[in-house]
Amino acid sequence: MKRIQVGFLVSYDYELLKNAIPQVYKESDSIFLAIDKDRKTWKGESFTVEDSFFQWIKSVDVDSKIQIVEDNFYRPELTSMECEVRERKILAEKMGIGNWLIQLDADEYFLDFKEFVSFLRSKNHYLDNPKKQQVQISPFLINMYKWVENGVLYVEKPTKIMVATNYPSYRVGRQTRKRIIYYKGAVLHECLSRTKEELQMKFNNWGHDTDINKNEFLKKWEAVNESNYKEMRNFFYMEPEKWKKLAFVKGTTFKEIEQNLDFLDVLPTFSYISKKNFGQWFKHLFK
């Protein structure tokens, strides 16, 4: 017990795992890949996973850490979000209560995972009786918005993301609505930096599919570029004003972006994070 367990949800964008898995492989104890048995999305759409991907998994899994978890994660009587929460809970049970349960999507690339693991280990006392002292750990997402000619546009202000918990009482996505412990670390999120066709597939099949004005969003997404992004505002796909401004980092590959982005400078200050953590501690003190 008290292991670092990492789980990924595998769907139509599984090729992105070739960026995501190497970021966490060395420091994790086990890695679990959850794939629908019938290759269905949460909306019931079909996808395929090429055999070459499983061959790639074998080639990189030099320490035999990776396990495939197959189940019928799509249920037609459930909404997309209900399917997502159900899959995450099933995956977490396989990962084992009493361990740190880290769940990531294929398009989420952890930066400096070694430091994050050290931080989790310093909180191992939360694993002694996890159900009675439930916490969720939030680093910050740096949301990639769009690849442009010389680099990538990303959302200037990072957002919180509940990637780890000691007890998987998920209610919406990875959100348990229990006490949050914020951590000054970054996950680079290749959220929207895809082709138009890939974005349409994503919007039609994820847990937030009913919340998005797809046509309005895609119109702005297509229009913004390296020359005009500073003059444009409000880019979020549900409530646009949540992502007010974009920033730019040079690079044509993920590795170049990782090297060129000073993510610690982009993230909130330690003072801000300390205040947030005190607020969370006080809010849940008597719960």
How would you characterize this protein structure?
The chain has about 290 residues and is of the alpha/beta class. It has one domain (about 5-285). It is built from 9 helices and 11 strands.
Give descriptors for this structure.
287 residues, alpha/beta, 9 helices
What's a concise summary of this model?
The protein is an alpha/beta fold and 287 residues long. It has one domain.
What are the segments in which pLDDT stays under 50 over at least 5 consecutive residues? none
Helicity, as a percent range: 25-40%
The 3D shape can be described as: globular
How many DSSP E strands? 11
Total domain modules: 1
CA-CA gap between termini: 26 Å
Organism: Flavobacterium cupriresistens
Protein name: Glycosyl transferase family 2
Task: Note the topology.
Layout: E1 4-10, H1 17-24, E2 30-36, H2 51-60, E3 66-71, H3 80-95, E4 100-105, E5 108-111, H4 113-121, E6 135-148, E7 151-155, E8 159-160, E9 164-165, E10 179-189, H5 196-205, H6 214-223, E11 246-250, H7 254-260, H8 263-266, H9 270-283
Parallel strand pairs: 1-2, 1-4, 2-3, 6-10
Antiparallel strand pairs: 4-9, 5-10, 6-7, 6-8, 6-9, 7-11
Protein name: Glycosyl transferase family 2
Organism: Flavobacterium cupriresistens
